Amino acid sequence: MKKRLIAFFSMFILLGLFMAPGVLAEEIGQNDIAENIIKTAEKYIGTPYGGEFDCSGYVKKVFEENGIELPRSSASQYMHGEAIKKADLQKGDLVFFKTSGSGISHVGIYIGDNKFIHSSSSKGVIISKLNDPYYWGSRFVGAAKVF
Description:
The protein is α+β, with helices and mostly antiparallel strands. Helices cover 38% and strands 22% of the residues.
């Protein structure tokens, strides 16, 4: 009986050494989803803007390829997700901008390191800096988590 208890507790100790503290299985799953979304998004770099590849259509397509349904427009995608603070952004979150008119008019996918991937009307699918002082930084409206 003592040997079984020792073996049982030893197993828990060893498992504890190999698991990152505070990381839940759900978080690990979300990280995998985010990485898959980013890989899918990156395969379209250079695709010209237009049709299915306007900003929201591109985001919708990338997420659909990963089993996540989103509405078609950037404003609807913002309302579909759970609003989060810029400081709380994680890979795979959506970032929203006001580029014209009133309200949300552009969306991209946060890829980490203060960057996002999106379909630009002038350059097609590209990676940009979120805090770009010349354009994106001043147009940031908000962010949302959709998975």
